[in-house]
Model the fold of this input.
Amino acid sequence: MKLSIISNKKIAYKTYQMELKGKFNLNPGQFINIKINNSNELFLRRPISVCDVNGERLTIIYKVFGKGTELLSKKTTGQQLDCLLNLGNGFEIVNRQNIVLIGGGVGVPPLYYLAKKLKEEGRKVTVVLGFNSKEEIFLAEEFKQYGDVHISTVDGSYGTSGTVLNILENLTFDYYYTCGPELMLKALATKYPKDGQLSFEERMGCGFGACMGCSCKTLTGYKRICVEGPVMKVEEIIHE
Amino acid sequence: MNRLAVELPGLSLDNPIIPASGTFGFGYEFAQFYDINILGSIMTKGTTIEARFGNPTPRIAETSSGMLNAVGLQNPGAIQVKDVEFKKLSKVFNKKIIANISGSTLEDYLKTVEIFNHSKIVGALEINVSCPNVKNGGMAFGVNANNIELVTKEVKKIAKKPVYIKLSPNVTNIVEMAKAAEKGGADAITMINTLLGMRLNLKTKKPILANKMGGFSGPAILPVAIRMIYQVYQAVNIPIIGMGGVMTAYDCIEMMYAGASAVAVGSANLVDPYACKKIIEDLPKVMDELKIKNLKDIIGGAHE
Done:
């Protein structure tokens, strides 16, 4: 599906926010898969999680890592982008009241749309965001409308020095949702082995279940990150 | 009369376009995108006698105009494939499929053939003697002419369906391998499988793929496929199903000129789930442009 770019701007160190126009029916935690251009050279699509849906406006936030995201960052208003929509399972909203959302780096965006949905459902939301340094921080202000926001930086240039785990030690919550680097997810799953959902990242061929490129083992069987994931319940994670 | 129709041993196809094994799952995943009955046939995911998880991730790496994969034949095992996956597929697909079979020993191949002999939806068997991802066995069969002949002969003895042998390009002499398959009694050849490749992560200095090596596919390999099909067409008398880097109707026709009787589309499906549909829809236009009346008349056209 071709979507028209409404805006594309830099919001933090190597980090960009893009808005796309269309009719959307996506759940928080789902992703879209973007073909950067018509050329065969950048062959595969780039899977990017949905940050927000607002009427006919879909927001993604992505970081420039290589040639594909570099080209994406140079796209301008009005250009068309070939996207596959509604991919992945998304977060399941459970019946808990005191919820913490834990985001690390480019894992932060999908939690934004989730925070909005949880707020609509009247839940208490606390947001914990971890970044490498102050210049990489984004969405911190925007999250404040949905709950208290706590920030950690690895280099100590802003907020709590260290990782999200340093903040979580001082918080009470009865359920958590998280997305971020694999090391962070593993640390969380080990420390909090119950009552949580984690959104994983993996290199994908197709993004819709055909190539089996992103399979993983769980306690409930083999799963494809792109179809049965990217969100897994912490109770099904295998601890190695 | 259908201008796109082509014939394969045991199968009459409405058009030459077949999704290649490993890029189309067991087919039904694609029914959410379009009516898959427009396809010529479907080559289903490589199946082994026992269930396999496959390789650890990362299993996918990108390269200019292509990709590497080291999935490692993840599949639920032959019985489950026949009883569950093929049943699911038969609900959305009413044509015959070409069932891909892999194995690490001769016995493994034969056991899976026995199981698929009893599946109504299976129109032909595609024996993968070339999957470069399984460390023990797969590679050994596909790079040795004697082994190819042996596997073909043994499979032919028990198969109740036509047998297509899928060749690896990772050999010094592809013609020798094709002749061995023909000598073993193969009904057709499918070629080419992926080329063995590797990419490194510049930060870690290590291979990107957990399996280190993987199968290289995508439009970058089209010329290798065209060359090998061209060579094999001259050397054997059995039909060839061509594959390797096909993205467009033009590529399909080029491959048929080289000698393919039908054309499988692989990686293109992963980038664009509508790839096969678009190629099938484009074919009549491209045929008009190239003044081609019937597709089956152009097979091996490069050799006239």
Q: What stands out?
A: The mean pLDDT of chain B is 95.
